[in-house]
């Protein structure tokens, strides 16, 4: 059992992570999962949650927190009429379908497999954030269907496996096809809702009846962590939106990319 000192530091770390996750949700159009998943993984380790379910609960709980965070961020961006609502409508089936596939995978993959998935994709995203250039282009407009639907499904699947809101991947997709970065950020917040809401249901189903789940968990969702993190995330999301519309984010992208690379290295080390 963790000591009282460890619990105090754990609560402080979770409070800080929740605040940063909310700010990043507004700033980058992401749900903050890249912050939340490592924080939850360490938290559940201190609480002696078995390794077999620890990563699954971290990812599922992250998605549960992202539901209100992404919704608050999207509504804030929508007030500025910045999101591509047409793309969101087109992806209302494709993205949740990808999330459904992720839930099926999560129900059968091991903890090491989940950590490997998170580490590899985080590594690639970190490299993308550090090396990204605004003038990189694949085309002048988004591709049509079926490619657009396939991309939506892939974003939904990969994001749900990582416990993230899909912002970094959608930002990359939209900006590579000539869309303004602020429109990509605003649209990503809406995609976070399309990922996290069905993801919450999917991870409840995937973890139903699993042994070793922490106290007050439903499937792979731990409601104690959700109750603590969600309010802080929602509180700081509008601040991130305000900064996103007033600041050149290149230096922040580099800093966030370095953070992602550090997180990836930590999970790769845990697999050795």
From TrEMBL:
Keywords: Cell membrane, Membrane, Transmembrane, Transmembrane helix. The chain crosses the membrane at residues 7-37, 57-75, 95-127, 147-169, 181-208, 220-244, 251-269. It is a multi-pass membrane protein. It is found in: Cell membrane; Membrane. It comes from the Bacteria. Pfam families: TauE. Its main location: membrane. InterPro entries: TM_pro_TauE-like (IPR002781). Belongs to the 4-toluene sulfonate uptake permease (TSUP) (TC 2.A.102) family. This is Probable membrane transporter protein. It comes from Pseudohoeflea coraliihabitans.
């Amino acid at each position: 059992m963790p000591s009282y000192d460890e619990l105090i530091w754990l609560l402080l770390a979770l409070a800080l992570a929740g605040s940063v996750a909310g700010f990043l949700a507004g700033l980058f159009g992401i749900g903050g999962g890249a912050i939340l998943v490592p924080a939850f993984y360490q938290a559940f380790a201190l609480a002696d949650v078995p390794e077999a379910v620890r990563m699954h609960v971290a990812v599922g709980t992250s998605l549960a927190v992202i539901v209100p965070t992404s919704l608050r961020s999207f509504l804030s961006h929508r007030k500025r009429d910045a999101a591509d609502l047409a793309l969101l409508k087109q992806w209302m089936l494709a993205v949740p379908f990808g999330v459904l596939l992720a839930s099926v995978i999560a129900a059968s993959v091991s903890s090491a497999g989940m950590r490997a998935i998170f580490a590899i994709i985080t590594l690639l995203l970190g490299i993308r954030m550090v090396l990204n250039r605004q003038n990189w282009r694949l085309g002048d407009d988004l591709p049509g269907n079926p490619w657009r639907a396939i991309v939506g499904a892939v974003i939904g699947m990969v994001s749900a496996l990582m416990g993230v809101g899909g912002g970094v991947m959608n930002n990359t997709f939209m900006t590579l096809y000539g869309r303004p970065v602020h429109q990509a950020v605003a649209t990503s917040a809406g995609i976070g809702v399309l990922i996290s809401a069905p993801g919450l249901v999917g991870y409840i189903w995937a973890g139903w009846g699993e042994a070793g789940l922490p106290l007050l968990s439903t499937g792979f969702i731990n409601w104690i962590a959700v109750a603590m993190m969600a309010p802080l995330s929602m509180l700081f999301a509008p601040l991130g939106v305000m900064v996103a519309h007033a600041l050149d984010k290149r230096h922040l992208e580099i800093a966030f990319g370095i953070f992602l690379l550090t997180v990836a290295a930590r999970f790769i080390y845990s697999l050795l």
